[in-house]
Every structure is written in C-alpha cells, then in structure tokens.
Protein: VOC family protein
Amino acid sequence: MLARFKDLCLDAADARALGGFWAGILGGCLVDTGDGDGRVDPPTERSSAEAIWINRVPEPRSVKTRVHLDLWLAEPQPTALLAAGARIVRKPDSEIDWWVLADPEGNEFCAFAPRPTT
Structure:
C-alpha cells in the first residue's frame, strides 16, 4: 500500500451553509472547526472515516468538479433533496438511470434510487 484514504474535502464560498446542507441530507452533524471551515460528521453509528470537510476558499468554482459524491436515495424520487436546496441538473433518461443534482454551491452529485434489498 502506498497510501491510505484520509478525508473527503469540498471547497465552498460559505462553508457553514454548504456544510449545513450536506449534514442535513446525510443525517450528520455539522462541526464548526473555529477557523471558517467545517466538518460533517456521520451519525454516531457510522464510521468516522465518512466525515466530509468543508473548506472555505476565496475564489468561486469556475468549472465542473471532477470528483463527486454518489448517494442512495431513501425514496424513489429526489424530492427531499430538492426541498433541502439541491437542484436537478439531469433527470434519468435513456442513457442514465439516476439523477444528477447540484448542491447549493453548484457541486454536482449523483442520486440513485433506493438500494435494492436482498
């Protein structure tokens, strides 16, 4: 092994607002790190390796992000994500069977229908 995964980090103009969005939809807790940044900790029953750091940066995002999150929806439609502040970028169609959404700062992520139970 050459390296181990440490953190997932998202840049944001408003780290508190973006952190609040992600904490809200993932059922996590937004932690104020005291320096303008934030961290979304997962629910206590989940691994701390799933924390997401939200880093305040001065420059706006200017191109599509090359890394994104994939989420399993709790319901068949992303209605709750839209109510929380996400917006639809692309709906399922003949090429894809998931939704491409964007968070309040425009970072794209994919939302898949609920995971099939076996």
User: Anything to note?
Assistant: The radius of gyration is 15 Å. The chain is about 15% helix and 30% strand.
